[in-house]
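Class, carefully examine what follows:
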Amino acid sequence: MSISANETRLCQNESKNYMKNISKLLWPTTCPFCFQANRTGICAACKVRLVALEIRETGCALCSKELSDEENELCCDCQRDGRYFDGGTALWRHELPVSKSLYFFKYKNMRFPVGDYVGNLLCRKERILKEWCVDMIVPVPLSQKRRKKRGYNQSELIARRLGERIGIPVKEIAKRTKETRPQRTLDRKRRKRNVAGVFEVTEEVKDKRILIVDDIYTTGATIDELSQEMKKRGASKVYFLTVSIGQGN
């Protein structure tokens, strides 16, 4: 007795579903923030924490950090240093569980949370992205040595997924011209010196509106240095978008 094409497809689908169910048992879905097993993705406890960490629109007019004095328009960093970028924002404050998730994403090859980052960025930052009306997305580059060691650029992964979702081209037109110390090991003044002159923009961006994407914004030294180079190459506006933002000055 011969088997029909429909019966063959049915058997194949049942086999695929069986393997999916087996894989879920062997490798259960985990929360991308606390990494505890959770079939629905982000667990209930982390959802509550994330709401409390959301960056509101009442912060610094340039970088979105919370203001120590609500009568000021700019945070201490932006007042003190001046900025080449024209605005920017982030999803959450850089505290647990966001800081843990980003650490594992950045240093432990845990790439699966990128979908949750981008999904939340689109859900919560759609209005401001439309206002900025950017022409291209540029991820903050890693040095060749660091990228080779890590195997990927976490900022590029976020940028690529975001670009796919909103239909804006992602261009790796920025590169690092020298090795630098990790920014997380330095204080504010040393961070600024550490990245001075480190970026090169390899294409003209005359009259373009650029969105720089990174994982974390701390003092803004890295993003501002790259923004300066974008402006030198003719960019009319430069904005940034990150997953998290530090709150210290």
